[in-house]
């Protein structure tokens, strides 16, 4: 049963990943990408890594893909304005794809030899409790340093995002009055400049 489910998930993952590449509409590519991340989360669940599955769905299928959708919508990508691809670019794409397939086949061939001596993992691997114990026992210092790094990033983002306070000085008021006199601005524009 689990093996059949694995083959179904593997076929669905490969199909959705292929559709990400082949799809002409960028929004459809993002939707196929979300499907790919969900099927990968199914693989994580089969490997007894529930925490990784949840993080994959929340972070990648949720946050990152929403970011991609907003970026695509802001860029307003259209295929009719896209310049045509040259034959050299198409040839380079096929050569790079062939090299990638050669590397993957070499890795798969070699992994068959190394998997023969591999132990079956403990059933506790992948559980959140085991991950928490490992983080707070073996990797406490790097974990705390990462939290300090996140704190610094949040403080930096808040400082960058704050609006500058406007201080009205006498010089700016005098300059505004001169501008009002020379350009004959109406009172609404002069009040906006004083703020």
Structure description:
With 195 residues, the chain is an all-alpha fold. The protein has a domain at 2-126: NADH-ubiquinone/plastoquinone oxidoreductase chain 6, subunit NuoJ (Four Helix Bundle (Hemerythrin (Met), subunit A), Up-down Bundle), CATH 1.20.120.1200. It has 8 helices and no strands. It has helices at 2-22, 26-46, 50-75, 87-114, 128-137, 140-161, 170-183, 187-194. Helix 1 packs antiparallel against helix 2 (26-46), helix 2 (26-46) packs antiparallel against helix 3 and helix 7 runs antiparallel to helix 8. The protein is extended, with a radius of gyration of 28 Å. The termini are far apart.
Primary descriptors:
77% helix, single chain, 195 residues, mainly alpha
Write the layout of secondary structure elements.
Blueprint: H1 2-22, H2 26-46, H3 50-75, H4 87-114, H5 128-137, H6 140-161, H7 170-183, H8 187-194
Query: What's the overall average pLDDT, rounded?
Result: 79
Q: What would CATH call the class of the domain at 2-126?
A: Mainly Alpha
Beta-strand level of the residues, as a percent range?
under 5%
Oligomer: single chain
Task: Please mark out the parts with pLDDT under 50 across 5 or more consecutive residues, or reply none.
Answer: none
For the largest beta-sheet, the strand count, sense and barrel status come to:
none
Span between N and C termini? 70 Å
CATH topology description of the domain at 2-126: Four Helix Bundle (Hemerythrin (Met), subunit A)
Radius of gyration: 28 Å
Written as H for each helix and E for each strand, in order along the chain, the element string is HHHHHHHH
Overall morphology: extended
CATH architecture of the domain at 2-126: Up-down Bundle
What is the SS-derived class?
Answer: mainly alpha
CATH superfamily of the domain at 2-126: NADH-ubiquinone/plastoquinone oxidoreductase chain 6, subunit NuoJ
Number of strands: 0
